[in-house]
Amino acid sequence: QLQLVESGGGLVQPGGSLTLTCTASGFTLFTNYFIGWFRQAPGKEPEGIACINDSGGRTDYADFVKGRFSISRDNAKNAVYLQMSGLRSEDTGVYYCAAERIGHPRWCTDPRRRNIDSWGQGTQVTVSS
Questions:
Q1: What is the pLDDT along the chain (129 residues), one digit of tens a residue?
Q2: Of 38, 16, 17, 12, nearest to 127 (Cα)?
Q3: How many other CB atoms are there within 10 angstroms of residue 61's CB atom?
Q4: 3-state SS class at 76
Q5: In the prediction, which pLDDT does 58 show?
Q6: Could you write out the DSSP letters of every residue in 15-72?
Q7: 91, 39 in Cβ contact below 8 A?
Q8: Alpha-carbon distance 79 to 23, whole Å?
Q9: pLDDT for the residue numbered 42
Q10: Would you call 75 helix, strand, or coil by DSSP?
């Protein structure tokens, strides 16, 4: 099973930028997995933010981050990145990366389509002045 560790969270002012990194390890092939970033605000269910397929050739974004966030992966480094810009207060939350092997076309934004194998422990992002 894949182990995931997020890093790069912190406090940023509205309009600012931040890049999160998800690093994978374990006795399994990283390129077998679709990776997604999810966000959980206090008292709410996790919501899909951005996802990328196993090769990195296809990405999917929630409507509310399109044009502001960008997901990419470096399979040689077992890493997935989330570049965030134009951050807003409503982007505040704990950001998790997750991995699954099936990768239904709507797994990122539809919880019913997810078959997640691994979650990271999360990293806090706070957008505030």
A1: 889 999 999 999 999 999 999 999 987 889 999 999 999 988 888 899 999 999 999 999 999 999 999 999 999 999 999 999 999 999 999 999 999 999 888 999 999 999 999 999 999 999 999
A2: 12
A3: 19
A4: helix
A5: 95
A6: T--EEEEEEEESSS-GGG-EEEEEEE-TTS--EEEEEE-SSS--EEE-GGGTTTEEEE
A7: yes
A8: 5
A9: 85
A10: helix
What is the residue type of 11?
A: L
| Two tokens, residue 30 | 């990283």
Give Dmax (Cα) for the chain.
42
Structure tokens at 44: 């709410």
Strands 47-52 and 34-40, by their bridges, are antiparallel
- Give the pair of three-digit tokens for residue 115: 């078959």
